[in-house]
Amino acid sequence: MIIKEHPEDFRVEERIDLVWDLEPGPFRLYTLEKRSWNTTDAFQAAARATGIPWGVIRYGGKKDRQACTVQYGTTPAAFDLSFQRHNVRVTPVGFAPTPMGPRHVKGNKFDVVMRRVEKGHGELLGQRWEEMERHGELNYFDDQRFGGVSSSGAFFAEFVVRKDFSGALRHHMTSHHPEASPAIRRRKRSMDRMWGDWRALRSLAVTPEEREMVGCCLANPGERGILEALGLLSRETWGLYLSSFQSALWNEALALMVRRSSEPLWSLRGKVTSLPFFRHKGTEGAWRSLEIPMPSSELSRSDDEGSRAVGEVLKRHGLKPEDFILTPSFRAHFSSFSRSAVVVPQEGTWGLSDDDRHRGYDKGRVSFFLPAGSYATLILRSLQHSIPGPSSDGPGPG
After folding, report:
1. What pTM does this model have?
2. What is the pLDDT of residues 292-349, one digit of tens each?
3. Is a pLDDT exceeding 50 seen at residue 173?
4. What is the SS3 assignment for 357-384?
5. How many helices (H) and strands (E) does the chain have?
6. CA angle 137, 141, 146 (to 5 degrees)
7. Strand ranges inside the chain, DSSP E
8. Contact 112/376 with Cβ under 8 angstroms?
9. Which residues pair with 71 in a beta bridge?
10. Distance CA 228, CA 213 (A)
11. CA angle at 145 for the pair 286 and 238, rounded to the nearest 5°
C-alpha cells in the first residue's frame, strides 16, 4: 500500500475562524495554493517577487511539501502579495481586522488516496475506518513535530531547561537536516569537533546567523556571549524548539497512561519513542474526555490524572515545572494548554475502487476533518495497521 505516491493523492484544505469580508480593512487576506512546495518557501518566493518585506506576512501553520494544499495568510492592506508560479499561487480573497496566525486555524480537511491496496485488504481498511469514526484514536503528536531533535535524540529545549546553554547553542549550530548535502554535513561535524574554539569556528561560519552567533561568543567569552547568541534566534525557531520538546514529553505521558490500562495494545514506531495504541475500543469512556496538559511551569497548579502523568514523566527526566521558566532575554516561553487524549475524525467518507495506476490493485480514498494540532499522518498510520504484513508496524510490547 502506498500513500503520497503523487502530491494529488494527499490534499489538505485549511479552515479558519478569522472573520473577513470584501470591504477594505486593515489586513489583506490571501489563499496560498501550492503543490510540492513548503509553506515558508512559497510565501518567501511571493515576497521576493512583489518586493514585500518578509516580516509583514503572517500565516497559521506549515503544510506538507509532498501534497496539494490550500491555506491562508495576511499582509497589511497596503501590500498586494498576488503571485503565481509553477505549482504555487497566492490570491487575495478579502480583508480581515487582524493578521492571520495559528490561533485562527480551526483545523484541516484531508482528502487522501491510498494506492496499490491488495485485493481483500480494502475491506479491512474500511472496517478500521468505521471504528475510528465511532471511537476516535489516541491523539499523539506525530514525527513532523520533532524536527528539532538531533540524530542522538537530544532536544535543544532540554538543554535549555537544564540550563546547559552551551549545549543548546551547540545543538543549534551543529545539527543539520537529514537531507543536508555531504558538504554541509562535513562542515557541521567540523564545527562540533571545534566547539568552544570560537576563532576556529569563525572560519566555518557561513550564514549570517552563524557569523553573528560566533561573534557574540568571541566578544563575550563564557555564558554571557552564549546567552547573547541564543537571544538571536527568531521567535519562530524558539517556538519550534520548545513545542518539539513539550510534545515529546506529552507523548510520554499519554503512553504511560495507555500502558497502565488493562487493554491489549499494539504500537507504532515513532521518531522519538514507541507509541502504544489500544487494539480494540479502548478510546471509549473516560478516554474521550481526558485532557493532558503540556509540560510547563503551570503544571504544579493542577492535580488531575493527566497532570499527575506529566509530573511523573518530568520526574523520570529529573525535571520540575519551575525548570520551564526561561531566561527573559530569550523572548520565548513554553505554552501552557491542555490537549485531548483522543481525536475523532469528523466529516469522514471512505471509498474503494480499482487503482487506475496499478493494474490488479485497489485504491482507497478517505476524506476527513481534524481539529488544529492533530495529525492526519497518525490517523493514516493507524488505519494501515489493519493490514497484515509490511504495511503495518505490527504489534508491539504492551
Report:
1. 0.90
2. 999 999 987 778 999 999 999 999 999 999 999 999 989 899 999 999 999 999 999 9
3. yes
4. CCCCCEEEEEEEEEECCCCHHHHHHHHH
5. 11, 16
6. 155
7. 2-3, 10-16, 27-35, 58-59, 68-76, 83-85, 88-96, 105-117, 137-138, 265-269, 274-278, 291-293, 338-340, 342-343, 346-354, 362-371
8. yes
9. 32
10. 8
11. 115
